[in-house]
Amino acid sequence: MFKLRRSVQKELLLLFRDVGGIVILFVMPLILLLAVTMVQKGSFDSILGGKVSVLLVDHDRESISQRIQEYFRADENLELLMELDGKPISEELAQELVRQGTYQLAVILPEHLSRDLNTHVQQNVDKIMSEFDFSGDTTLVATETKPIEPKEIKLYFDPAAHASFKTAIKMSIDKLVSNIESKTIYSTFQEELGEDMDIELGEQQFISYKEVGRDGEHAEESLPDAVQHNVPAWTLFAIFFIVVPLSINIVKEKAQGTMLRIETSPTSYALFLMGKTVTYLLISLIQFYLMLLVGIFVFPYIGLHSFQVGNSFGLLSVIALFSGLAAVGLGILIGTIASTQEQSAPFGATLTVVLAAVGGVWVPVFIMPPVMQQLSALSPMNWGLGAFYKVLLRGGGLVDILPEIILLILCFLLTLTVAILYDKKKRTV
Amino acid sequence: MSTTAIHIENLSKQYRGADFVAVQNLSLTIQSGEIFGLLGPNGAGKTTLLSMLCGIIRPTSGKFSINGYTYEQSPVQLKQSLGVVPQDFALYPSLTARENLLYFGSMYGLKGRKLEQEVIASLDALGLATFMDKRVETFSGGMKRRVNLLAGVLHRPKVLFLDEPTVGVDVHSKNAIMEYLKALHFQGTTIVYTSHHLSEAQAFCTRVGIMESGRLWKEGTPEQLIAEEEKAQTLEDVFIEITGKGLRDV
Question: Quick check: keyword ATP-binding in the entry (chain B) (predicted)?
Fold first, then answer.
């Protein structure tokens, strides 16, 4: 036990006397978390809540135009612009400004949109009414009418606009147009059936939806916004980045000959590795708590939501601990196999990035291609992230995260065993 | 009565994929209390032999025992009885001399006050007491060489392997190291020593062996070997006679 204690003491001394190493281990992950969260906040907001300027080129200037303007003005996330520098916007100018990325969206309403829609609806209503033979009413006689050409509302999107932003806008406008069409049909029928009819038609949409959360309440509060997504995701990324300094540390031990001293001493390679495991596990937990503290206390000062831990502090710590263990195992394996820092550092860094990408740190697994979704199940970061989401978003307990914890432990045991066997094999060269 | 410290029988090593044998059927016995000089040009097989004896690599064939122990049967006891001082400074540069020695001492099972006292006394014996709390990276080559030596002998090994312990140091450090080694020998430590300083070996060793191409060509006291070669005045003359004058670039 005293050998292990002395090994940990040595490792900590080595770490804390390397200022650059400390910066990489503790400060860089915090900068990464802050930067990525702030950047992604903009992206999330563009879909979920940020103010987006919309150019409206209005060739209609009638009822539909009025309804669309009302709709855009009512949405606090959208800012409607119909003039620039006091002049109406032309379609060409709007197209150019959106193409340049100055604005994210331009909506072009065609000429006579309202009038043609009314005519089109009127023609259809007339046809239907004529089928019912309301005798004596000359207006109900179907007449030969010229068909109205379908109209197009043109949408110009910034080429760099996020696909989900485009989808959200298209769906909103589609819904708005359908709503206007329905109302026009209703009011036309109302007019046709008699001006003296005093029927109040419900303005409200009859079928609506309600998203229900895990507690039977509205789910909006538990949606993973940038903060709730990024704190666990990037904390995991930082924890796994320990692979780089740890593997370098082991390669250094080999290069400077200190490993040789251990190999020729009565201390086993396993105990030597346990010293590193305990130390780097401690480091990963410190990283985790630092990032948690930043998420909870610093984020609100820079315009981000505070990270919500709720009653899950203990469970989150358990996940961080075992994720750290898996990361340490990978670092030990790479450090044992690599013979130079030039091998271990780039390989360790690349592996971490690949595991993060495959594991769903950057892009949610469910939107990945099927092959990648299957591959993601092999990434320890995916296990850790899955466990974090189970606790933070699905109200999971220790039993729920047990499969992920077991996988993380197996990852550590497997990598450690391979490292020890490789070291033994190396001596038979 | 002297006992056997190291017994080697037909030891061979051929590295995987190599077209030569690094050590060939080498047999040797070193008695307790000897200072055995393992001499030979670069590539003669000295480091391979030491690496096998230290347990870093495994032999292809043959066997050996150290202090009656083998790696197969008693690896921990064998390693506990061994001290290894590599040619490179096998130290942590950012740790102080004391921190380095405390760590390496503890890896040999030393602990507590005994370890602390041993570290301070050893550093004092090699003139490093006033520098014990300074980082090794700030030391001169001679100082590092002395700490490097201490890290291998802190646990008072029965057999000590030294790989060129005085290479690249000034006269003062060299004298301090040699005196310290003589004191260890006086206390009963068996020393196996490699060096390219043949005059140093002649003065220091009780017996030497000259290796060439993986084989042990000659062994005996320096005086015996010099006497056996007709024209030899020194150990260096014997060495040149056996290994030739050609350059050895490995």
Answer: yes
